[in-house]
Target: TraB/GumN family protein
Amino acid sequence: MRTLFAIITVLFMSSLTGNAQDTQKEIVIVGTMHKVPNIVKRSYKPMLRRAKNYNPTAIYVESPQGKDSLSWDYLKDGWSKSYKAFYYLSDSLQQVFTPNLDKYNAILDKEFSVMTSEDLEYLITTFAYRRDNANYEFYSYIKTYGIDGPKKPTQHEDGDLTFKLALHQNIKLLQSMDDQQTNKEYHEAWTKCNKEGRSNGNNAINIKMNKKAYNSAILPAIFRGLGKHTNKRKSLEQLHKSSSFTYVTVQTEGCTEGERYWNERNMRMAKNISEQVTASNSQRNIVIVGAAHVIGLEKELKENYPDLRVVLVSE
Model:
């Protein structure tokens, strides 16, 4: 009798463990090349196919959150002309436009295929008002190209991967997770590290490493395998080393500062992702981000948010 009870107990506990694993929220990280040159303009097509097969229920993108005032304080006069224009459009709309939440929700309840031009324009204006750049760009894309998209590749992760994936999955809202609060300091550190590296051999190491990475990508790129190659762990680690300045053999002030700012940005991005995933009902979450961030995000998510299952798309 005791033996039977023990067996039943083990089976019951195994069932509970299995159910817990089944309901564990998952994050798949996809590294992108951002904009690709014309010679490899179809590089995102295989990546889109793989992303569709994963069947995500939420999509996270490398775009600043509307509520992130520190990032926007930098971006309004920062490196990106499109972010600058978007910020001042948003700023002007906040003076004259008042969103109607019922109208906004009613439009989002519609299928993409039946949204009118007026519907799309209202959503675009509302997203600009909210400083939600990701969805502003998404619905601007739909208004311009329709739900089938352009005939030619846009050569960018948004038009060739993210937006097409969202339309295929009937995902109405993209989730922003970027953080650029210290991007100015990071680029200043990059410049300083580069100047320091001219005489101590650090730059030569980076040039050699990047040349090797470029050469290894030539064949995959020719056969439309650039995305798959970029997401191999070896490629991701090289990109991480270059962006975090961990390739250096001579530690300098600029390189040390750059590494700190890079790691802190990845830490805050991971926090943005985990908070939203945890608060949502989505089980299968895909993060589409510049490939140089993947290793850092994986580390931060696995170390600090163990309740989430984190997987690289290549693994």
